[in-house]
What we know:
Blueprint: E1 15-17, H1 29-32, H2 35-46, E2 50-53, E3 76-79, E4 82-85, E5 91-93, E6 98-106, E7 113-120, E8 125-130, E9 145-146, E10 151-154, E11 167-173, E12 186-188, H3 192-198
Parallel strand pairs: 1-2
Antiparallel strand pairs: 2-4, 3-12, 4-11, 5-10, 6-7, 6-9, 7-8, 8-11
Amino acid sequence: MIHRLFSEPLTLRNSVALDLSATNMELNPSVYGNVSAFGEYIEGKIGGKIGFGGYLEHRVIYETYENFATASADFRNIHLGMDFWTKAGSPVFAPLAGFVHSFQVNEGAGNYGPTIILYHPAEKIHSLYGHVSMADVAHLEVGASITAGHLLCHLGKPTENGGWPPHLHFQLIHDMQGFKGDYPGVCSQRDLQFYANNCPDPTAFLQAK
């Protein structure tokens, strides 16, 4: 059984689907190129609720960050996880039992900032939590046991989460490919088939109680 990620189950009352795709004409560099403006845009759309969405979403918001350009200039703009946008400090709970696979602070504008990765043996899947609070990784230990419903972390502020409006990047991963404390959360169109297979759709976690 999957435990909810946030303090309450997501419902029509407290959550709303958020479109950050390339087809959203409201998004332009003057909005997503400035963290304050982007934050105001997000807040206006979610209206105090939790905004969610983004799995395999084609986004233009990454074009302002150098770390999303590949060596071959094949731009990475397909989002591989699901984002949950809400207030900084909001608690996040482990949805499944497992243990801490790895964690680290992924520094740089547009990056994850503090990141936690769990492994869930029963499901043979990893889960990644990006843009969390710095305090949440200060005392973690690799291999530490985590129960479903365990208070895992909190959403970080823009000053610690890679410069983003507060949100959780939640991603499922089959094969970590040797990564520890990090894993690509965005891919290019060229690599989409591989990553879509390795990072399955987390939609089922929206209905968790």
